[in-house]
Design a protein that fits this description.
The protein has 29 helices and 37 strands. With 900 residues, it is an alpha+beta fold. It binds one RNA strand of 87 nucleotides through helix 8, helix 12, strand 19, strand 20 and strand 32.
RNA sequence: GCCGGGAUGGCGGAACUGGUAGACGCGCCGGACUCAAAAUCCGGUUCUGGCGACAGAGUGUGGGUUCGAUUCCCUCUCCCGGCACCA
C-alpha cells in the first residue's frame, strides 16, 4: 500500500472538510484509526448496553458462546459477525436489542492444557478469556459486555447446583449405574475422544468398560413434549427439526414377553435371580411367527449367568464388553454372536426359541433383548445367515413379486405385506396383524401396546476436575444428602493440577472431607462434576438476569425470552439444542420461566474450510502444513505443491482437499493477523460475502484482499463526492432520465438489502446489491446540482446498507457525508416507491423454450399487444417461418414462449 | 451403518414461488497511467465452432413430468455434519 498523504495546505485537504459539519475526511482508508475511533464512540456512549423497555419491541439476538480455547478461530468470527449484522440491522429498525456474550468455560481442553503446560485449568481458562475478549472487542461486535457470563464462576455454576437439587426433589435427576471407558494404567475414566482404536490416548492400554454410579436427568419423560413442540418452531430450519425428531425416535409398537424355558430359568436361579421372562420391543408384531432366535446384550443378566457354565461363551461376553458402545462403531462392526444353549418360549405357539448373545444388542437401549426375525429384518437376516439359523417367511408382498425370502437380502423383504404361516393370524394385512397379535398377547398377559423412544436419559456425571461440582454428600448414616441451599455454591478449588491419573478432587481431602449436613458426622463430598452441556443449557436465560446474585432468573427473563434469533454451528443441531429445550421445559415446570421453547428462530451456520496439505515421511506420523507456507506450481496442467523447510530445502507435499479449519490439520487462519493486516471490517465483509451463512465457507486470501479493495473503493468514491462540496437538496420533479435511473438503482438496492438481511439472511447477495449500486454510482458522472443530490442519496443508501456489516468504515463515511448523528442511531430508510416506478420493461422471448430475443413493452401492455409484438419480432419470424404457433405462453413481466 | 445436508464457469457463489443459467466477487487476458513496478482506472472472460452476425452444448450421473427444470419426482456416485464423555 502506498499513496501520498496530502499536504495540509493542499486544495484537496481543504475540500475534504465537510462544510456542513466541519468534519474532515482522510483521502486514504486507514482501518486501524477508523476502527479505534468508531469503537471509542460506541463505548463512550454505552451504545450496546441493553435496558428493558416495555414500550419498545425487543430483539434478543444470541450467538452460541465460545469455549475459551485460547484464541478466536474463524468459525467464531463467522458466527459472531452474523449475529452482529442482525443485531445492528434490528437496532436501526427501532428494536430494543440485546446481544450478550459469555464463556463456556468448563471442559476437557483446560485439563489437557494443564497436563501439557503445568498451568492450572482456572488460570489457563481466565487468561484465554481475557485474550479472546480483546479479540471480540477489536472486531467491533455490538455486544452488551455488562451481562457477560462465565460458566466457571461460582456465581454462575451455583445455579447449576441449585437447579440440580430442585430436579432431584422432583425426580427429574436420579442415580443409577452407567458404563464408562476405563484406562487401567492411568486408573482414570476417558472421554470417547481420548480412546483411539480401543486404547487409552496417553497410556496405549486397552480400554475397559466399567459400570459406575452416575446421575441422570430424565429427559425421556419430556420426549413427547420435545417432539411435539418442534411443530411450534416455525423459525427453525426444517433439517434441524427432522434431525431432532429422528434423534428422539418415537416408535409405536408392542412389548412382547417371552417366558423363559426351564433351562434358562434354572441357570438364572443358580445365579441367584428369580426371573420368569425376557421382554422385547418390536414395531413388527406381525412377524412374531417368524421368530427363530432371541438376541441379548453381553451385559444382560442371562448372558452373564450362562457364561459361568460355558468358558467359550464367557470369553465372547468379555470380548463384547471390551468393544465400543458408540453407535457408529456398533452399526459398522461385524455382527457376531454365540449361542447360549438356553431357550425362551414363543408366547403364542409355546415353541422353544434359542437365546443368542449378540454384539449388536445394547443393554442401554430397551430391555437389552431383541427378537430375531431373519426373514424380515436385514440385521437379523445377516446374523442368521452367518450362524445357520432358520429363516422363516411370514409376510409376503401385496404384489406377489416373491414368495419366499432367500439370499441375497432385498429391501422389500423388510416391508409391510400380507401375513402367511402365522396360524390364525395368516392372511392379514401387516398393520391389522400387528393389532390382532398385540391384542392376543395382551389377553394372555404376554404383551401390550407401547411407545418406545430412541432417546436415552442424559447422564451428567463426569469423573473430572474442571467442571461444576455435583452438590451432594455421601454419609454412612444418612446416605446421600443434598448440600443445603444456604451452603451453595459448592466451590471448585481452582489451584489443582490434573495429571491424567484420575480426578484430582478425589485426592484433595480439603474438598471432599465434610461433615454430614444432616447428622454432623464425617462424610464424603461427591467428587464427580457435571457434563459441560449442563452449563450451556441455560446460559441464555442468565444473560437476562446476569447481575442477580439472589436468584437464578428473575422478572427480566420474561421481557427478553424467548431468544429471537439464535445463531450457531450446525454441529450443535442435536445435543446442545435438545438439552437446552429440555432444560427450559424443566424450568418452566418449576415455575421459573414462562416460555417452553427458548429459541424462536435458529440459524445454523456452516463450517469454515481451508485447504489441507500433508506429507507422509517414510517413518513416523503424517505431517500437516499450513496453507500459508505452501507454494503451488503448475506444469503441463499438473499441479504440485511445495514447502520450503527451515534448512532451505524444498519438500513436495500432497493436497488433501478441503476440510474444516483445525489444529490437527494445521490449516487454521488466525483472525488476529487478519484484523491486524486489513482491519475488522475487511474480516467481517469477507466472511459475509464469501458464502451464504448456512453453507460451508472456503477460505481465500484473494477473497480477503478483494473485500479490502472494495472498502477502499467505497471510501474513495465517497471521498471524491465529498471533495466536490456539499450537495443541493433533491428536487424529485426536476430529474432527467440518467438521474432517475441512478435513483431507481439505489432504491432497488435498498429493497434488496432490506429483504436479504431482514428476511432471507443472505448477506452475500445483500453485499452484491450494494456493489452493483456502487458500480452504477461510479459510472454516473453528473456534476450538476441535481446530479450531485442524486449521487449523495445513492451513497447514503450504500453506506447505510453496508453499515451492519462494516460498521466502522460506515461510521466514518456517514460523518463525511455531512451528518452529525452517528450512523448506528439512524433509522433504516423507507423505500421511495416513486423512485422505483418505470414506464416500460423488457420481456424475454423464447421459441420452443429457447431464448431467441427480447422485446420492450409498456408496463400496462395487455396480452394481445404482447402477442402481436412478439410475432412481429424479426428473430421470432426467422425461427417460426410460416408455421402457425400452436401456443403462446405469456408470463406477465417475465417472458413469452412461442410453441411451434 | 443410520440420520441430515451438499454438488452450478478456472475459483467462491447468484438465479427467492417451475420462467433470461452464471448477478457480485476472485483469478486470468488486454488496454490506460508510470522511467518502471505496485496501486488505481477502463474493457474482456461458461465451453465448442465461426473473422463475424450467429449457431450448438451446458447446472455431479442416468431417467421422468412440463410449452419451459439448477428448481419437482425416481436412480446412482462422490463430499461434508451428527451419532449421546470434544465443544
Amino acid at each position: 500500500m502506498s499513496g501520498r498523504v496530502p499536504s495540509p495546505l493542499s486544495k484537496k485537504w481543504l475540500l475534504s472538510v465537510n462544510p456542513g459539519t466541519g468534519f474532515h475526511m482522510d483521502e486514504r482508508y486507514e482501518p486501524a484509526a477508523v476502527e479505534r475511533s468508531a469503537q471509542q464512540c460506541w463505548n463512550g456512549a454505552r451504545s450496546f448496553a441493553a435496558t428493558e423497555d416495555p414500550s419498545k419491541e425487543k430483539f434478543y439476538c444470541l450467538s452460541m458462546f465460545p469455549y475459551p480455547s485460547g484464541r478466536l478461530h474463524m468459525g467464531h468470527v463467522r458466527n459472531y459477525t452474523i449475529g452482529d449484522v442482525l443485531s445492528r440491522f434490528a437496532r436501526m429498525q427501532g428494536r430494543n436489542v440485546l446481544q450478550p456474550m459469555g464463556w463456556d468455560a468448563f471442559g476437557l481442553p483446560a485439563e489437557n492444557a494443564a497436563m501439557a503446560n503445568g498451568v492450572a485449568p482456572a488460570q489457563w481458562t481466565r487468561d484465554n478469556i481475557a485474550y479472546m475478549k480483546k479479540q471480540l472487542q477489536a472486531l467491533g461486535f455490538a455486544l452488551d459486555w455488562e451481562r457477560e457470563v462465565t460458566t466457571c464462576d461460582p456465581s454462575y455454576y451455583r445455579w447449576n447446583q441449585w437447579l440440580f437439587l430442585r430436579m432431584r426433589e422432583q425426580g427429574v435427576a436420579y442415580k443409577r449405574t452407567g458404563v464408562v471407558n476405563w484406562d487401567p494404567i492411568d486408573q482414570t475414566v476417558l472421554a470417547n475422544e481420548q480412546v483411539i482404536d480401543g486404547r487409552g490416548w496417553r497410556t496405549g492400554a486397552l480400554v475397559e468398560k466399567r459400570e459406575i454410579p452416575m446421575y441422570y436427568l430424565n429427559i425421556t419423560a419430556y420426549a413427547d413434549d420435545l417432539l411435539g413442540d418442534l411443530a411450534m418452531l416455525s423459525g427453525w430450519p426444517e433439517r434441524v427439526k427432522v434431525m431432532q425428531a429422528n434423534w428422539i425416535g418415537r416408535s409405536e409398537g408392542t412389548e412382547i414377553t417371552f417366558p423363559l424355558a426351564e433351562d434358562a430359568r434354572s441357570v438364572l436361579r443358580t445365579a441367584g435371580q428369580e426371573v420368569e421372562s425376557l421382554k422385547v420391543f418390536t414395531t413388527r408384531a406381525d412377524t412374531l411367527f417368524g421368530v427363530s432366535f432371541m438376541a441379548i446384550a453381553a451385559e444382560h443378566p442371562l448372558a452373564l449367568a450362562a457364561g459361568t457354565r460355558d468358558p467359550a461363551l464367557q470369553e465372547f461376553v468379555d470380548e463384547c464388553r471390551r468393544g465400543s458402545t458408540m453407535e457408529a462403531d456398533v452399526a459398522t462392526m461385524e455382527k457376531k454372536g454365540r449361542r447360549t444353549g438356553l431357550h425362551v418360549l414363543h408366547p403364542l405357539t409355546g415353541k422353544p426359541v434359542e437365546v443368542w448373545v449378540a454384539n449388536y444388542v445394547l443393554m442401554g437401549y430397551g430391555e437389552g433383548a431383541v427378537m430375531g426375525v431373519p426373514a424380515h429384518d436385514e440385521r437379523d437376516f445377516e446374523f442368521a445367515s452367518k450362524n445357520g439359523i432358520d429363516i422363516v417367511t411370514v409376510v409376503r408382498p401385496r404384489d406377489g413379486s416373491w414368495q419366499r425370502v432367500e439370499a441375497p437380502w432385498r429391501a422389500s423383504y423388510g416391508e409391510l405385506g400380507i401375513t402367511v404361516d402365522s396360524g390364525e393370524f395368516s392372511g392379514q394385512e401387516s398393520r391389522a396383524a400387528v393389532t390382532a397379535i398385540t391384542t392376543a398377547l395382551d389377553k394372555k398377559g404376554l404383551g401390550r401396546k407401547r411407545v418406545q423412544f430412541r432417546l436415552r436419559d442424559w447422564g451428567i456425571s463426569r469423573q473430572r476436575y474442571w467442571g461444576c461440582p455435583i452438590p451432594l454428600i455421601h454419609c454412612e448414616q444418612c446416605g446421600e444428602v443434598a448440600v443445603p441451599d444456604d451452603q451453595l455454591p459448592v466451590v471448585l478449588p481452582e489451584d489443582l493440577l490434573p495429571d491424567g491419573s484420575g480426578n484430582p478432587l478425589g485426592k484433595t481431602p480439603s474438598f471432599w472431607k465434610v461433615d454430614c449436613p444432616t447428622c454432623g458426622k464425617p462424610a464424603r463430598r461427591e467428587t464427580d462434576t457435571m457434563d459441560t452441556f449442563v452449563d450451556s443449557s441455560w446460559y441464555f436465560l442468565r444473560y437476562a438476569s446476569a447481575a442477580n446474585a439472589r436468584a437464578m432468573v428473575d422478572e427480566q427473563v420474561k421481557y427478553w425470552l424467548p431468544v429471537d434469533q439464535y445463531i450457531g454451528g450446525i454441529e450443535h443441531a442435536i445435543l446442545h439444542l435438545l438439552y437446552s429445550r429440555f432444560w427450559t421445559k424443566v424450568m418452566r415446570d418449576l415455575g421459573l420461566v414462562t416460555v417452553g421453547e427458548p429459541f424462536a428462530n435458529l440459524l445454523t451456520q456452516g463450517m469454515v474450510l481451508n485447504h489441507i496439505y500433508s506429507h507422509q515421511p517414510a517413518v513416523g506420523r503424517q505431517v500437516y502444513f499450513n496453507p500459508l507456507d505452501v507454494d503451488e506450481e503448475e506444469q503441463d496442467d499438473v499441479k504440485r505443491w511445495f514447502v520450503i523447510r527451515t534448512d532451505g530445502s524444498r519438500l513436495e507435499v500432497n493436497y488433501d482437499g478441503l476440510g474444516t479449519m483445525s489444529k490437527s490439520k494445521n490449516n487454521g487462519v488466525d483472525p488476529q493477523s487478519l484484523v491486524e493486516k486489513y482491519g475488522a471490517d475487511t474480516a467481517r465483509l469477507f466472511m459475509m460475502f464469501a458464502a451464504p451463512p448456512e453453507q460451508t465457507l472456503e477460505w481465500s486470501d484473494e477473497g480477503v484482499q478483494g473485500a479490502f479493495r472494495f472498502i477502499r473503493r467505497l471510501w474513495k468514491i465517497v471521498y471524491q463526492h465529498v471533495c466536490a462540496g456539499s450537495a443541493e437538496p433533491l428536487e424529485r420533479a426536476m430529474l432527467n432520465t440518467t438521474q432517475k435511473d441512478l435513483r431507481r438503482a439505489a432504491y432497488q438496492a435498498l429493497v434488496k438489502v432490506t429483504d436479504d438481511i431482514g428476511r432471507r439472511r443472505t448477506f452475500n447477495t445483500a453485499i452484491a446489491a450494494v456493489m452493483e449500486l456502487l458500480n452504477a454510482a461510479s459510472r454516473f458522472d453528473d456534476r450538476s446540482p441535481q446530479g450531485r443530490a442524486v449521487a449523495q442519496e445513492a451513497l447514503e443508501i450504500a453506506v447505510i446498507g453496508l453499515s451492519p456489516i462494516i460498521p466502522h468504515a460506515c461510521h466514518e463515511l456517514w460523518k463525511a457525508l455531512g451528518h452529525h448523528e452517528a450512523i448506528i442511531d439512524v433509522s433504516w430508510p423507507a423505500v421511495d416507491k416513486e423512485a422505483l416506478s418505470q414506464d416500460a420493461h423488457t420481456l424475454v422471448v423464447q421459441v420452443n423454450g429457447k431464448l431467441r430475443g427480447r422485446i420492450s413493452v409498456a408496463v400496462d401492455a395487455d396480452e394481445a399487444t404482447i402477442r402481436s409484438a412478439v410475432l412481429a419480432d424479426e428473430t421470432v419470424k426467422r425461427f417460426i417461418g410460416d408455421t402457425v404457433p400452436k401456443k403462446i405462453v405469456v408470463v406477465p413481466k417475465k417472458l413469452v414462449n412461442v410453441v411451434v
